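Database export, one record per block. Field names are fixed; values are copied verbatim from the stored entry.
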Amino acid sequence: KLTAKNADISGSVNANSGTLNNVTINENCTIKGMLEATQVRGDFVKAVSKSFPKKAGTWGNTETPNGTVTVTISDDHNFDRQI
């Protein structure tokens, strides 16, 4: 068992269990199992909006939906998602 404080350890780390607090992954990371998170910051989905075509309504100064909008999904991830 190694116990160290304020240690600078280089090389590879292999572990079967444990806890990491306040760590930074500077480059790519591959997770081969399930990722579970209680807080996530950043983009998983990029939302884009587009106004729907409208026409003049029948009651004064109103508008009603009229026409179609085509939505194209560009998926750069190889896992299933619901939209």
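Remark 1: The mean pLDDT is 83.
Remark 2: The radius of gyration is 25 Å.
End of record.
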